[in-house]
Write a structure and sequence with these properties.
heterodimer; A: 416 residues; alpha/beta; eleven-stranded mixed beta sheet; three-stranded mixed beta sheet; B: mainly alpha; Non-ribosomal Peptide Synthetase Peptidyl Carrier Protein, Chain A; globular
């Protein structure tokens, strides 16, 4: 029996470049940056770092003020993205009896950290002894998934993965397997993150891994693959995909963006923060094998590339190891150069962008000049500075590599 | 006569709902206030008026009951 195929039929995005998927993708292709200098409003002292902030996002506009006020910002971002994906898939009128078997698979790294931080401020600084009654349900890491299931009436599995920067790629893998196994024909999968709390920024600064920048340089502070790369840029955002059994999607005449064809996972089992060529290559090979793709069929990789010195070098080495001679011909870009790194939401965001790249035959660029590329990151066909259109990519990988050594790679194929 | 103005002003501030559309019979649920947001709303009223409700107090269901609650709390504080 031929295994079930999985279609991507809906996409929703809230990012520093736009409050919808089309707005984000268009801005990305134009080479715009969503990064700016950000000063966390509750910081006790002066602090400003380059960050990807969803400035145009108003949760109340979609959810109403009452509902929006009961959700942490990470949930607001995720729910609005999830609802967009659902509308985009044309499932708004799907009968409730069908929805009872559909589910949600979500990912977030730091979940409701803004709620925790506000609570600690109230307790430790303001000396208050009472917290708002919804503190627990706002802060919990599965609040976003739970609210999406309620809003859409989804009665199947509702899961949340917290695997640092691979969280939502792993969630998409979970959804993919449920559809392929025939357990659930429709899954809403994605992730969201709102990590721009004062304490979180301080913690990342302590790790000495954030890219520096002032008001003028902030938009280009994240420089993946460039010689002068100096670290990552934190960002917030929400990203959701509707994944659907291929035959079901075809039968209802749904627009199919692309096929989610395979998932590969691995663990570096070496170091909590230092990435491993072998571990990453193992996940890429596993994704290709799961998708029954050969390196020769692969045309694009949306790299994890956060803009750290070692991370980017290791990823290119892993690509060369996994793809062999084919690596030199594969288009590679790092969309974090424009959007920053939304941690647990990054996997879903980049899976969505990879899907759109295949669908529109337009590969978004790594921002920055091609002449600035680091020779240590050579050996692949970098898409630098300008989007690549008309290359007719057949298949792509979306890479997500997490602290802790967890790697998740998604393989997508152009609709055939 | 129940003075609804303070409670309605609170609803307008917190929920962004035009007071002119409210009357005593307006169900809070119709304004999007479910059981969770009602918990939050009552907490904010307590914080605003600096009092604690008896745990046995039934939560308000409509704007009239909300106004009566606010009036009682205001009186208790005075």
């Amino acid at each position: 029996m031929t295994p079930r195929r999985v279609a991507v039929t809906g996409i929703g995005l809230v990012t520093p470049l736009g409050t919808t998927a089309p707005a984000t993708f268009a801005a990305l292709l134009e080479g715009r940056s969503g990064v700016r200098l950000h000063a966390p409003p509750e910081a006790p002292g002066a602090l400003a770092v380059p960050a990807g902030v969803c400035d145009g996002f108003e949760a109340a506009a979609t959810l109403g003020r009452v509902k929006a006020a009961t959700l942490d910002r990470y949930s607001q971002l995720g729910v609005v993205a999830g609802l967009e994906a659902w509308r985009d898939a044309g499932l708004a009128e799907a009968p409730q009896e069908d929805r009872e078997g559909w589910g949600v698979a979500w990912g977030t790294g730091v979940g409701g950290v803004l709620t925790y931080e506000r609570s600690y401020r109230d307790l430790h600084l303001a000396g208050r002894e009472r917290l708002a009654p919804l503190t627990v349900v706002q802060a919990m890491n599965n609040a976003c998934a739970g609210y999406l299931a309620i809003a859409l009436g989804l009665g199947g599995a509702c899961t949340t993965y917290s695997v640092a920067c691979a969280s939502s790629a792993i969630a998409i893998g979970d959804a993919f397997r449920r559809i392929r196994a025939g357990t659930s024909p429709v899954m809403l999968a994605g992730g969201s993150e709102a990590p721009l709390a004062y304490g979180v920024i301080r913690a990342w600064l302590a790790l000495q891994i954030l890219a520096p920048g002032d008001a003028q340089s902030a938009p280009h502070a994240c420089k993946p693959f460039q010689r002068e790369r100096a670290g990552l840029v934190l960002a917030e955002g929400g990203a959701a995909l509707v994944l659907e059994d291929w035959s079901r999607a075809q039968a209802r005449g749904a627009r199919i963006y692309a096929e989610l064809a395979g998932v590969g996972e691995s663990c570096d089992h070496a170091n909590l923060v230092r990435p491993s060529v072998a571990g990453q290559a193992r996940a890429m090979r596993a994704a290709l094998a799961d998708a029954r793709l050969t390196p020769a069929e692969l045309d694009y990789v949306n790299a994890h590339a956060t803009g750290t010195h070692d991370g980017d070098t290791v990823e290119i080495a892993a690509l060369r190891s996994a793809l062999g001679e084919r690596a030199a011909a594969v288009a590679v870009s790092a969309t974090k150069s424009a959007l920053g790194h939304p941690l647990g939401a990054a996997g879903a965001l980049e899976a969505a962008l990879t899907t759109l790249a295949l669908h529109h035959d337009a590969i978004p660029p790594t921002l920055g000049e091609a002449t600035q590329l680091d020779p240590e990151c050579a050996g692949v066909a970098h898409v630098a500075g300008k989007a690549l259109r008309g290359a007719r990519p057949r298949a792509a990988l979306s890479n997500s590599f997490a602290f802790g050594g967890s790697n998740a790679v998604l393989a997508l194929r152009t609709r055939a | 006569m129940l003075d609804t103005a303070p409670a309605f002003r609170f609803v307008e501030e917190r929920l962004g709902i035009d007071v002119r559309t409210l009357d005593a019979a307006t169900e809070l649920e119709s304004l999007g206030v479910d059981s969770l947001s009602l918990l939050e709303l009552v907490f904010e009223i307590e914080e605003k008026f600096g009092v604690r409700l008896d745990e046995r107090t039934a939560p308000p269901r409509n704007c009239g009951e909300l106004a009566a609650l606010v009036e009682r709390l205001t009186a208790a504080r005075a």
